[in-house]
């Protein structure tokens, strides 16, 4: 029960997980299921998998993860600029 409290107190937003404690080997297995509201923070820091390690994300990656959690991407966001020109693209498409 103490382990569950530590998990619940350390990860935000709350996640669904399965905890298994092998009494013979004293091995604890924690499986965290993918949730609906990523990114998730462990002790107020967001992490991502990098091969076999978990590494903290920088602010740019955190912004991308937040958008991904909302099923958005940078290119789907509205632009605040109103005077846009695509002359280079237009020239490239003429050939």
From TrEMBL:
It comes from the Bacteria. This is Uncharacterized protein. It comes from Lactobacillus amylovorus subsp. animalium DSM 16698.
């Amino acid at each position: 029960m103490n382990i569950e409290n530590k998990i619940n107190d350390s990860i935000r937003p709350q996640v669904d997980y399965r905890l298994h404690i092998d009494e013979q080997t004293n091995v604890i297995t924690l499986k965290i299921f993918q949730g609906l509201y990523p990114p998730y923070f462990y002790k107020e820091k967001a992490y991502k998998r990098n091969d076999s390690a978990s590494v903290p994300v920088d602010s740019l990656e955190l912004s991308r993860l937040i958008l991904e959690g909302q099923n958005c991407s940078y290119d789907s966001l509205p632009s605040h600029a109103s005077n846009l020109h695509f002359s280079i693209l237009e020239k490239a498409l003429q050939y």
